[in-house]
Amino acid sequence: MADNKNAGNTGNTGAGNTGGANRPNIGTTGGMGHTAGGAGGQSGQGGQGGGFVDTAKDTVRSVVDRVSDVAGQARDKAGDWAGDAYDTARQAGERVQRWAGDAYDTVGDRVGDFGQEVTSLIRRHPIPAILVGFGVGLLLGRAARMV
């Protein structure tokens, strides 16, 4: 493009294009200047447009980075909450297991004590124990026949 700057007329008032309406504006300094100015104007707008596009890209990247950070934080927070929920559920399960074990031991001890008391009562009074057993058997038999 630098070679074409000096081509054509350089402003001679004689032959050459003077910018008339019927003749194309090719090969004159005025024409080249106009064309160069037009191209420069377009590249200037393109430069401004490019700056706008770059700014938009930077803004979008910034927003994407922020969204990514927020999503990462949300994921971490959800993981923390899930871990806390797991720990709480595990601790509650351990407490229920301990309570159930203690209840089982207590009931087992009391049933064992009750069994020992019944056994000692039967040994102390064998005939009344046999008669009570016979009466309970009759009552259960009649109840089973009615149902």
What would your notes on this structure say?
The protein is mainly α and 147 residues long. It has one domain (29-131). Helices cover 80% and strands 0% of the residues. It contains 2 helices and no strands. It has helices at 29-124, 126-146. Helix 1 (29-124) crosses helix 2 (126-146). The protein is rod-shaped, with a radius of gyration of 52 Å.
Question: Mind sketching the topology for me?
Answer:
Layout: H1 29-124, H2 126-146
Helix pairs in contact: 1-2
Instruction: Describe the main β-sheet briefly.
Output: none
Number-wise, the strands total: 0
Assembly form of the protein: single chain
Q: How many domains comprise the coordinates?
A: 1
> Compute the gyration radius: what is it?
52 Å
Low-confidence stretches: 1-46
* Structural classification: mainly alpha
Shape: rod-shaped
Number of contiguous helices: 2
Reading the helices and strands in chain order gives: HH
Separation, N- and C-terminal Cα atoms: 115 Å
Strand content: under 5%
Give helix % range.
Answer: over 70%
Q: What value does the average pLDDT take?
A: 76
Quick gist of this model?
By secondary structure, the chain is mainly alpha-helical. It has two helices and no strands.
Spell out the key features of this protein.
mainly alpha, rod-shaped, 147 residues, 80% helix
